[in-house]
Amino acid sequence: MSNGDKGWEFHLRSLSNSARDSNLATDPASDPSLLQSVNKLYELCKEEKNEDLVARVYPHINKLFQRSVASLSQSRTSNGLLLLAILQFFLDFGEVVLHDADPSLRTFCRLCLSREFADPVVAEATLEFLNSNKKKLLSSFPALLPQFFPLLLKLIAWNGEKLDKAFLKVFPALMSPASFLPLLSSLVDLPILVVALEKVERSSGSLIGSSIASIQKSTAPEMLLALMDEAYTGSTIADGGADSESEESSTIDVADPLFLELLKDENDGLAERHWTSPGMAAALQAAINTPQSDRMKQILNMTPRFLDTYFAIALHDVNDSLICALIPLIMTRYSTLFPDKNFSYEVRKRLLEFMLAAFQRSPDFVALLKKPIMDRLGEAYDSPAKMELALQLCWAIGEHGGGGASHKDAARELFENLELLLYENLSSSRLGLMQEARGSDSESYRKSSQSRLLCFVVTAIAKLATYHRELLPRARVSLGKVARSRISDVRVWKRARDYLGLMNEPAICLSVLGPSRPSRGVMQNPGTINWSEGGTKMVAHIPFYILGEQEGPPFHDFTFSDVIPRK
């Protein structure tokens, strides 16, 4: 015990002496022995389990924390490891000394991690600290990590795949009702965050030791002006000589909301991101025209994995109201992604899978979200991405009966929009995809896209009318026009003709085109025919060739008397 007493007394004297040393008082982290002393005192307190010892050590540890935080703006040494060691002491012994660790944790994030997230040693130690204390953080400080998720995204975006596994373990703790919606936008924009961070580094040097979040408060905004000028116009202030600066200063704000939104440290809600602005288009075009850095390649690979975790947690733990609010955001972001082909494919695949899974779990979302759905249908002409989204929404409208039997008004409005989309394409062969499909085969591409759209719309109209019988007369009129049309692809009007034939057999039509789940009061499962009713209902014209995509006589060699039970 005497040796132990001498040990902790020695380390206590080290902390006390550092406060009197003029050099160490202003930059405690410059003395590596202080970190060793903090770690040793922590270990002794854990081993001894002596509250008196903890109470004697705490004042020295707390004063060291305050001095370290105060010296951050002038320090040339990394303070991250020292502060993390002190925070570990606060977390484990805070109840003994009545110390609330929440302000200390927030101070670390705002003043230290915001300056040192680019330091690979500090980044790795931070994730290790968060993982080892995850349960305590979630139980005692549940709002901490959701508030600082933008800072942790900067950490992983800059440090890359070597911290991928550690970050994924922390990731679930970033999600809360307050962070759920803005977190999706930040995840899909991780490549653009890398672009912004790399531009800051090229303009101002190393990211370590300077707080990007406070850049708008700088008294020397030249670096930010140069950065935004390069991102928004593809040029630099230096390129234009002396006159260029005065010209660009009038058009570029040092507190540009897009720049600040990308590089913020804390979650301040779901902010609008101006991805359609000419400046953003120029920045994305510049990113396309330059070779991808290793950091960019890594974030392009990691982002789909982060989205997998995000959506898995959303479907399992998040309530319906938040998921319903998320779907319009998914619709908006579906066509506004970083323009890398593989990245866009992987992200859009996951966005669609989640959206359709949400509709499958709660079909009434289709009715509740009729306005954004109708808006997206109206944008089907704008781009291939918006076309694919419109196709999937058409499928969801038909598959889930416009929201179900209790949402007849919404179903009627969705049906009317499908009608409008159908008539627009029947009356004109124009499809607004020419901007992205220039070339010798643009006409065939246009016709193919229009045929796909019409097939989806025709099917959605038939399925919606099957679910809501009051829409059948209008559906017959619409499908009749398609069946008689010679403008459309032959596959389209033949499909419309087949659906019209199915509608003459209500029981079979409900089985083939009905909802994916039995409606209220109907026990029949989807995709089946109640053969026991064959003696009283007409089933002789079952269109087997539709199901097998074949024409001509049926290929079976049995009669209906073989499969319909006799009474």
Question: What secondary-structure arrangement, pairings included, does this model have?
Answer:
Layout: H1 2-20, H2 22-26, H3 32-48, H4 51-70, H5 80-97, H6 101-116, H7 120-132, H8 134-140, H9 144-147, H10 149-159, H11 164-170, H12 180-188, H13 190-204, H14 222-233, H15 241-249, H16 257-263, H17 278-289, H18 294-317, H19 320-333, H20 341-361, H21 365-368, H22 370-378, H23 384-399, H24 408-427, H25 442-467, H26 472-484, H27 490-503, H28 506-513, H29 544-547, H30 560-563
Helix pairs in contact: 1-3, 1-4, 3-4, 3-5, 4-5, 5-6, 5-7, 7-11, 10-13, 10-18, 12-19, 13-14, 13-18, 14-17, 18-20, 19-20, 22-23, 22-24, 23-25, 24-25, 25-26, 25-27, 25-28, 26-27
Organism: Dipteronia dyeriana
Domain AP-5 complex subunit zeta-1 ARM repeats: 30-154
Domain AP-5 complex subunit zeta-1 C-terminal TPR: 167-517
Question: What does this protein structure show overall?
Answer:
There is one protein chain. This protein is an all-alpha fold and 567 residues long. Helix content is 67%, strand content 0%. The chain has 30 helices and no strands. It has helices spanning 2-20, 22-26, 32-48, 51-70, 80-97, 101-116, 120-132, 134-140, 144-147, 149-159, 164-170, 180-188, 190-204, 222-233, 241-249, 257-263, 278-289, 294-317, 320-333, 341-361, 365-368, 370-378, 384-399, 408-427, 442-467, 472-484, 490-503, 506-513, 544-547, 560-563. It is elongated. The chain starts with a helix and ends with a helix. The model is unreliable at 216-255, 429-440, 519-527 and 537-550 (pLDDT under 50).
Q: Could you state the order of secondary-structure elements as H and E?
A: HHHHHHHHHHHHHHHHHHHHHHHHHHHHHH
- What is the terminal separation in angstroms? 95 Å
Poorly predicted runs: 216-255, 429-440, 519-527, 537-550
Mean pLDDT: 80
Radius of gyration: 31 Å
Oligomer: single chain
Instruction: Using the alpha-carbon principal axes, give the shape.
Output: elongated
Instruction: Let me know the number of strands.
Output: 0
Q: Please outline the major beta sheet.
A: none
Number of helices: 30
- Strand portion, in percent? under 5%
Q: What structural class do helix, strand and pairing data support?
A: mainly alpha
* Share of helix, binned: 55-70%
